[in-house]
Amino acid sequence: AVTASDVLKNDPSVTSSSTPGDSALYAQVRGFQAGGLINGLQVEAIRPNQRNSYLFNVERIDLLKGVSAFLLGGTARMPLGGALNYVTKMPTADPLTRLTLGYADGGRVLVHGDLSRRLGDESQFGLRVNLATNRGDTPIDGQDFRTDMAAVAGDWQVSDALTLRAAFEFYDIEDRGYRDRYGVDPGFQIPRAPDPRINHTNRWARAYNRGGYGFLQADWRVAPGWMLTGKFISSREPERGYEGSYAQLVGPNGELTVFPGNLLGSLEDRSTDLTLRGLVETGSVSHELVFNGSHTASEFEFSIDQTGVSFGPFASNLYAPVFVDRPAFNSDLPIGKGLVYRGAGLAVSDLITFNPQWSALIGLRHQAIEGESYFGPGGAQDSAFDNTKTSPVAAVMFKPVPSMTLYAHYAEGLEQGPVAPQTGVSNPNQAFPASVAEQVEVGVKWESEAKLLLSATLFQIERPLAFTNQETPLPRFVVDGTQRHRGLELFASGPVNEALSVIGGLTLFDADQVETGDPAQNGQRPPGVPVYAASLTGDYRLAAVPGLGLYAGVFRFGRQDVDALNTQSIPAWTRLDAGVRWRTAALGQATSVLFNVDNVFDKRYWASAGAGLQIGTPRTWRMAVAIDF
To answer: Which of 84, 191, 263, 497 is most exposed by smallest CB count within 10 Å?
Structure first.
């Protein structure tokens, strides 16, 4: 896996879409936009709709849903539906020296070095360094992508009771010929998906993110059975922006209206979390207590230039794009304060174990979310909000046999409100107040002797509905009514036998809009939520050739509606990915060779209708060789 989308595609509860070289990943969990964290701390720059995070410095991605997000802490402003937690690489117990070389369809070259060592007389110090570059053309016409990354992490075992950790990462990402999503006018059927290699974006267009973060953590065993953990992260992107055009689909034959634009900006984040965990025994009943406090602050600064260009919008087409010379953008735009968010949370929970069969979780969380937007004349403040909420969480678990768990839980939470799009609406960039979401979930999990994990879950999530209405001459982005998602998740992960492992499942969505104030809209499906999503990936190890494995994955997404009235939609689609891997020490070093192909049959499809139309991935092959020295 090179990007976050490579990992997330295996879980059908996650709707994600990106194409080769995309600097943005649009991810939804259970049909709602996912939140993003680094090592359990909220960071806006890592939000899945901000950038498609490359995994050079990521050990794993934890998908958090419901109670798991609550127990993690650091959730002052997290969506209740789900979040992606990027756990970064830390020093390993054993020495590691790994070089990875890769090449991808179109001409992208990857070089990645990963070095880890223990230092000191008692190996009390750890150091890990990751350096990577991935650059070159993609299979999409006129698109080339570059990402450079440097990361260093260290730990210090001060004593048996105290461990300190620190991590720093710097990245520079640029996507030239960046292909954004398409906006859609109402009143016509969505045309067939174009050849995914065609790029309507001008060759001079680019999206870029340059910045980094610093992370600190201290774990202190204050008493037997009690651990105090403090975390802090500061993230800053002094350069982030987009120079290019926004395309609006205006007709059934692929007609486009293209709006040149230039966005300059910066982003700064700070997040702090303090958690005390401990075990208390009261007779035969045990209590795992958690006390948590968290605080986040984010500030977006940017300016948008759509008027200071040498010409206005121009006509183009999905199937025969029109290209123009770079307009005279105003490169001296003043960058002013745009959006400011602050969030604070206090939480307490008790996981009560009555006996080996029965346990329960009870908890409370108090949240405060406030913010301001500065899009008035001359950068004046034009809106502000300050919301607080104390919310419960409760769960009960029953294990009829040690390998099976039945559970039910309820949770509420205050969530950061949406922000109107930057273009295509009459109220661009308007920030809406925080709102309350509710989630109910029941399910069962079972693990076989071979460690195959099977699960089935029923869930319901309700939150305020945000959508773009049909006002003329420009639609308006509004928050009105309730968006309710009910669903069934079936999931399997792990070995079936010594040769075959599988991962995948099925999610059925019963999503609707209620209490919108518009009888024609009530009961309709929210845009961008598929009727169903299914995936199944199998990995088969060939006994005749030690270390050789074959894998294939099938991904199927149901119909998605484009507009709130469900008059426009994109059809269901199916995609096949496949590959081969070989692990060997025949050359005297532990070596892994990987070759895979996405979209084997070169299917043309609209991947997603959430926040605009996203063209699917063209057939793309990649190969990589990782050598441990």
So the answer is: 497
The distance from CA 2 to its chain's CA centroid, rounded to whole angstroms, is 14
Q: Which residues contact residue 317 at a Cβ distance below 8 angstroms, ignoring those fewer than 6 apart?
A: 200, 253, 254, 255, 256
Evaluate the omega torsion of the peptide bond into residue 260 and state whether it is cis, within 30 degrees of 0.
Answer: no
d(CA 241, CA 338): 14
- Nearest Cα neighbor of 265 from 207, 342, 181 is 207
Comparing 139-148, 530-539, 569-578, the range with the smallest average pLDDT is: 139-148
Q: Which DSSP state fits 194? A: P
pLDDT of 386? 92
**Confidence class of residue 47 from pLDDT cuts 50, 70 and 90?**
low
Rounded-to-integer distance, Cα 554 and Cα 283, Å: 51
Q: Which of 353, 233, 235, 230 is nearest to 292 (CA)?
A: 230
Going by C-alpha positions, the residue among 270, 212, 216 that lies closest to residue 236 is 212
pLDDT in tens, 384-415: 889 999 989 999 999 999 999 999 999 988 88
Q: For residue 291, what is the enclosing H or E element?
A: strand 285-305
List of E strands, 122-225: 125-137, 144-157, 162-176, 182-184, 206-223
* pLDDT given for residue 48 in this prediction: 44
What's the pTM?
A: 0.92
- Report the candidate in 530, 464, 493 with the shortest Cα–Cα distance to residue 14: 530
Which tokens sit at 527?
């845009």
Please state whether 45 falls in left (phi above 0), alpha (psi between -120 and 50) or beta.
Answer: alpha
Angstrom distance (rounded) from CA 329 to CA 308? 6
pLDDT in tens, 500-544: 999 999 999 999 999 988 899 999 999 999 999 999 999 999 999
Cα-based distances in Å from 311 to 180, 261, 274, 306, 446: 21, 11, 53, 10, 62
Q: How remote is the C-alpha of 67 from its chain's centroid?
A: 18
Intra-chain end-to-end CA distance of the chain, in Å: 21
Question: Cα 49 to chain center, whole Å?
Answer: 7
Q: What residues does 370 pair with on adjacent strands?
A: 342, 386
**Residue 530 phi, psi dihedral angles, 5° rounding:** -70, 155
Phi/psi for 479 (5° steps) reads -120, 110
Averaged pLDDT, 176-189 = 88
What pLDDT does 49 receive?
A: 45
